[in-house]
Specification:
transmembrane, ABC_BtuC-like, 11 helices, transmembrane helix, transport, mainly alpha, ABC transporter involved in vitamin B12 uptake, BtuC
Length: about 260
């Protein structure tokens, strides 16, 4: 399998999972959390590079530790998730910038999906599929929790456990996406396709479907264009997603006339 085909396949699955998650991030008004969490992963990636083990594993360890800490502190304090993520973001960004090897810093910030081995690509695809299935399985609970936590609790939904699961999903998708678009642009991978879908969707299901479609098209075309013209795929993906967002805004305004 060529590097191009392998990269496109991986990007499709990662973008689908990220876009699906992004729909709920917008509903939960946590649009910037993905951006912040991607920087939380930096120290883990840096330590992996220094001690020569898989950067994905380093990112996952730091992200899971961070979201568990955020979840616990939110419960024990009066601070919101966004505030706590901001604190972890600032500290992790500073630490990551200090310890990340200089020659690896650009790839960490902008991503390089072509550098994935076949084994890493397969693992990324399998994790993405598992996350997509899990999100779809709990989508109604997530939606109800975002509408009213009291109503969700009244019908037996365990809000605290659900929120932890949501943050864990966020952590895993961020860890996957960093290899694609890098730490600088990870938040856009999650949010922009979902924001475009929100402009056009008429229901929750159409919102989720359009978000995934926009994400997949932008990812596949971004990787292809980047390969042809020797660009980094992350920024190209974001630019294509931004074009979709502008078009969706125009269509929305036209439909309101």
């Amino acid at each position: 399998m060529s590097i191009l085909i392998q990269s496109i396949i991986v990007s499709i699955f990662v973008a689908a999972a990220a876009s699906l998650l992004g729909s709920f991030a917008i509903l939960k008004r946590m649009a910037l959390v993905g951006d912040a969490l991607s920087h939380v992963a930096l120290p883990g990636i840096a330590l992996a590079l220094i001690f020569n083990f898989n950067p994905f594993l380093g990112a996952v360890i730091f992200l899971i530790a961070a979201v568990t800490g955020i979840w616990f502190l939110e419960y024990k304090s009066d601070l919101s998730v966004e505030t706590l993520v901001g604190v972890f973001f600032a500290a992790s960004l500073a630490l990551g910038a200090v310890i990340t090897p200089e020659h690896e810093l650009l790839e960490t910030l902008l991503g390089n999906i072509a550098s994935l081995t076949r084994q890493e690509s397969l693992i990324s695809i399998l994790i993405s599929i598992a996350l997509i299935v899990f999100i779809l399985k709990i989508r109604k609970k997530l939606a109800l929790n975002m509408i009213s936590e009291e109503l969700a609790q009244s019908i037996g939904i365990k809000n605290r456990r659900l929120e932890l699961a949501y943050l864990m999903i966020f952590a895993l998708i961020v860890a996957l996406g960093i290899r694609f678009v890098g730490a600088l642009l990870m938040g856009s991978l999650v949010i922009i396709p979902a924001a475009s879908a929100k402009n056009l969707a008429k229901s929750l299901n159409s919102f989720l479907s359009l978000s995934v479609i926009f994400g997949i098209i932008a990812a596949a075309s971004g990787v292809y264009i980047a390969y042809i013209y020797n660009f980094s795929p992350g920024p190209i993906f974001i630019l294509i997603s931004a074009i979709f967002f502008i078009i969706s805004l125009i269509i929305r305004k036209f439909n309101q006339i």
